[in-house]
Amino acid sequence: TGACFMASSALVLLVLIHLIFHVATQTCNSFPYPKFVDSLPIPRKLSSSTCYTLEVSRIIQKLHRDLPPTALWGFGGSSPGPTFEIHSGIKTQISYVNNLPEEPLLPTEPLMDEDQSQTDIVIHLHGGVTPSRSDGFPSLLVPRGNKQVSVYPNKQPAGTLWYHAHPESLTRVHLYAGLLGFYFIRDQVEKDLDLPKDRYEIPLVISDKALNYTTGELIYPYTFIEEFFGDVFTVNQKIFPYVDVEPRLYRFRILNACNARYLNLTLSNSQPFHQIGADVGFLPFTVSLSVVNLGPGERADILIDFTNYSNQNVILLNTLFSFDEGECVIPEILQFRVSATATSTESTTIPTNILQYNKPTIAQTQRLITLSEVQAIKPNGENQTASLLAGLRYRDPIAIFMKLGTVEIWDLINLTNDTHVIHLHLFHFFLEWRAFFAVDAYLATGQIIYVSPLIPPDPNEIGIKDSIKAYPSSVTRIIIPVKGYAGIYVYHCHMLEHEDWDMMRPFRVIY
């Protein structure tokens, strides 16, 4: 009870901080057409092979009934791309073939090299324990007419992974254009839980978009901005869709695929979510929540029980007091239309205890990673605020060497007024605690003076993670078992404009 109280108190404080600095004060009202008139599309599944080829190409999709078709980039002819369902331990090979046209979909100013092609691709399996050569290192660009061949061992537990574009300095526009898809790993633990499956397990890719409502075209600025926010939500690339559900238990795999917008999810009828998993695995136990907060790149595996809501409509909302740094809040996302009766008698349950983890208690190395801002020069000679990790830019020499078989503690010291979502490639880690500190004193003396108690993880943060929110004026401590493969990887902020403008750093894993 004490831990829950402290976490709740911390959340209140964090809300106040964001109200002071960034939280939007108005609702987005620009969408001129009716909401909830398009059925939610469900990406097709791929599970029958171990060797796949995905074409990366320009596609045309209808995002809303009343809009003209929209040009996107997609995998295998759609966006989101197909959902992979892979059993743990079964190796897969995916060839990503770059068949994009010569002209970029969303031209944007260069941030690294004036002559960088904006149609070169790199694909990363987010959450994958993957050899370096297959991980999708941002600088290993694949030109048009070529392919990236990645081999994924899948030696990891069941989890909600996703694959997406990851090219150096262009991730923000490639992902916004549609280059992403789910990748579910299955195992026996999941099977034994008797969770909803097949049509009762629904993937939800949530992102915010800006569109020209006359032509249907996506809008993204040519000139670099520090954070991008749209004014409509898409779910699986439909604007404000609905989904027909039965009065029974459902499982939803939710991804925040926004460039920079945080989601604060709740249901219009105030019923709870039952969260069973986070980024890359199950939680130790089910957590019942009225609100689920997700930063960009984070995932939630949740159950919703519609049993008592026959013939009702329930709205998935993004509440006003979210950690939302945009110009306006988008309050509605998706409508659930609950039918009169259930057609399936399949037995499903909300589990209680799920999976225990052995979190390390001793570390061999501790690192202090500052999150800071500086003024940097863009290729066009203009100054632009850049966010940095450990005071270094992306192309500076590697400064972190991690030894396989050891354990590291990283203290993420956030000196900025932004909440950053820090994602580590290759590794799954544990959140140990957060605490607020005096930033001015640190900048003057280099000493961390805490102004709050150590705040333990919220119950839905206790499992393994690959991405973590680092709040303003706080230290976020994570514990990293150094497992996997030797090679060069990256860690970065998953607010995509931050990532593209230098808030990404390489590290090397050694034997």
Descriptive overview:
With 511 residues, the protein is mainly beta. It contains 5 helices and 31 strands. The strands form 6 sheets. A 7-stranded mixed β-sheet has the order 12-11-10-14-19-16-17, with no helix packed on it. A 5-stranded mixed β-sheet has the order 1-4-9-8-6. It has a 5-stranded mixed β-sheet with strand order 13-21-20-15-18, with no helix packed on it. The N terminus is likely disordered.
Strand pairing plus helix content: what structural class?
mainly beta
Low-confidence stretches: 1-12, 15-22
Strand order of the largest sheet: 12-11-10-14-19-16-17
Distance between the termini: 42 Å
Instruction: Give the beta-strand count.
Output: 31
The mean pLDDT is 93
Largest sheet: 7 strands, mixed
Which descriptor suits the 3D outline?
globular
Q: What is the radius of gyration computed over CA atoms, rounded to a whole number of angstroms?
A: 22 Å
In terms of DSSP E residues, the strand content is: 35-45%
In short:
The protein has 511 residues and is mostly beta strands.
Give the SSE map:
Elements: H1 2-21, E1 45-46, E2 51-61, E3 70-75, E4 83-87, E5 92-98, E6 123-126, E7 147-152, E8 159-165, H2 171-177, E9 180-186, H3 188-192, E10 201-209, E11 232-235, E12 238-239, E13 242-245, E14 249-256, E15 263-267, E16 273-277, E17 282-289, E18 292-294, E19 299-305, E20 313-318, E21 332-338, E22 365-377, E23 383-389, E24 401-403, E25 407-414, E26 420-424, E27 430-436, H4 439-445, E28 467-470, E29 474-481, E30 487-493, H5 496-500, E31 504-510
Parallel strand pairs: 1-4, 2-5, 4-9, 10-14, 13-21, 22-25, 24-31
Antiparallel strand pairs: 2-3, 5-7, 6-8, 8-9, 10-11, 11-12, 14-19, 15-18, 15-20, 16-17, 16-19, 20-21, 22-23, 25-29, 26-28, 26-30, 27-29, 30-31
